[in-house]
């Protein structure tokens, strides 16, 4: 996601984040004293230098400037060739995310994760989509505990009990594939484990609502209903998005009740990527202009898939098969 970038979910997302931040800054007052469990509140660490992509790797339009030039004006209906390329890019993204799962452990840093993702991309002749997208400095987003989204990998070692979302997007054969999961590091308390499980359930239910002819807004209604039933809130700032040869495009996929217009059609590809929180839905953006943290330091979790609307329903393109 760099939701948009989402970025699951960065184009319009940065705007949404800043608007919400301004709106609620004077309302929030003192941070919540509610007990959200036992975990470390994360502060940003040291960020290492941006890595250089080899010349032979095909690169997206924003590689140098940071600004995409391949925007699309409306929802795209993909043909069989485009769908095949989407399957390939999404399969690679899911494979890399599986590699991350086997790599994560106490003591590893999120910068270590970034290096792994970068290496996996290059070895597979792919470009790590987040790198320099809107000037994002790394190859992957890593969001730990109270970091809700768009965390920048740094030198902080993962601690026993952390939960960390890793958001992998690759640009492969001209198309982006986008997925994320929240991993539990070591011994996570019941509150954290329940949050992670609930978020994965909400993603599953949201994806299951997808089919040709269904309203886009149904996804958000289903996700929010399930989140509330499970005792959590959806952070509204982060959206899913259309995806293809472009990183982010129409439609916008809201993960809460909304009135977004339009219906799904066979051939559409987009992400579904809810972020759930234990506490307040509101977030703040740190001085790096990317890292979104909860205002009450509550933990969040996120899961994301890229999906394809088919003639009969929905296909998860980033299903993480072992």
Automatic annotation (TrEMBL):
Keyword rRNA-binding: no
Binding locations of a divalent metal cation 2: 178, 241, 273, 304
InterPro entries with a match to the protein in the record: Creatinase/aminopeptidase-like, Pept_M24, Pept_M24_MAP, Pept_M24A_MAP1
Top-tier EC class: hydrolase
Domain Peptidase M24, residue spans: 85-311
BP GO annotations: proteolysis
Keywords, in A-Z order: Aminopeptidase, Hydrolase, Metal-binding, Protease
Residues reported to bind substrate: 150, 248
Record EC number: 3.4.11.18
A Pfam entry, by short name: Peptidase_M24
Catalytic activity: Release of N-terminal amino acids, preferentially methionine, from peptides and arylamides
Binding locations of a divalent metal cation 1: 167, 178, 304
UniProt cross-references to SUPFAM superfamilies, sorted A to Z: Creatinase/aminopeptidase (SSF55920)
Cofactor note: Binds 2 divalent metal cations per subunit. Has a high-affinity and a low affinity metal-binding site. The true nature of the physiological cofactor is under debate. The enzyme is active with cobalt, zinc, manganese or divalent iron ions. Most likely, methionine aminopeptidases function as mononuclear Fe(2+)-metalloproteases under physiological conditions, and the catalytically relevant metal-binding site has been assigned to the histidine-containing high-affinity site.
The organism's place on the tree of life at top rank: Eukaryota
Gene3D superfamilies (UniProt xref): Creatinase/methionine aminopeptidase superfamily (3.90.230.10)
Cofactor: Co(2+); Zn(2+); Mn(2+); Fe(2+)
MF-aspect GO terms: initiator methionyl aminopeptidase activity; metal ion binding; metalloaminopeptidase activity
PROSITE patterns recorded: MAP_1
Function: Cotranslationally removes the N-terminal methionine from nascent proteins. The N-terminal methionine is often cleaved when the second residue in the primary sequence is small and uncharged (Met-Ala-, Cys, Gly, Pro, Ser, Thr, or Val).
Similarity field: Belongs to the peptidase M24A family. Methionine aminopeptidase type 1 subfamily.
Protein name: Methionine aminopeptidase
Species name: Callosobruchus maculatus
